[in-house]
Amino acid sequence: MRINKFLAECGLSSRRKCETFVLEKRVKVNGKTITELSTEVGANDIVTVDDIRVAPIKKHVYIMMNKPKGYICSASDEHDRKTVLDLIKDHNERIFPVGRLDYDTEGLLILTTDGDLANRISHPRNEISKTYIAKVEGAVDEALIDKLRGGVVIDGTKTKKCRIKLLEFKNGMSRYEVIISEGRNRQVRKMFESINKEVVFLKRVAIGDLRLRGLRRGEYRDLYPEEVNYLKMV
Ligand code: URA
What we know:
Structural class: alpha+beta
Bound molecules: uracil
């Protein structure tokens, strides 16, 4: 097997990122630093990265979590905030979140050891849709919502067309379903900010056809095989 595939199967990162480990001369095979991406390795080879031995993970882990607000989606945080990995109790593998939900956002998060799958799902080229429930205070003029549907400039770039539907207006709050096919930083919040509306609650309820169901905040479960297959096909 080629070295980048081997390293990806060790759960280190995607195949492409693993190539950089080789180019940075961090990888040794049987004690010898390698620099060729075409290097092939087998089950009997001893492979190290930064002098730590790595071995392929037999089976990848795929988890669906209902992320609560108040957690960040990375392995560590400079401000010592809690991370979603703090919620995972029964896994020793190197699991990482696929894409990000911001600190104040809750809902569907996928975590996995499978770097290739993670990359495919988050790659902008694949345009997998993400469905959010967003609440804002007061009623919003439909013409402004239409502006958001057509695309607004955030951080200097126009957002792609998206779908937004008013689900309910209750107790002075508008509840929207927002379906976007990009994954830009704080995108939904910034879209509403662009029309001077603050999102006071944000939850992701679906990634493509994969829906968050039956999990309380902070709970997680393994994905069913058909859910994993679905994500591998998108
Ligand atoms: N949009 C946001 O504003 N935040 C998220 O976490 C995801 C999408």
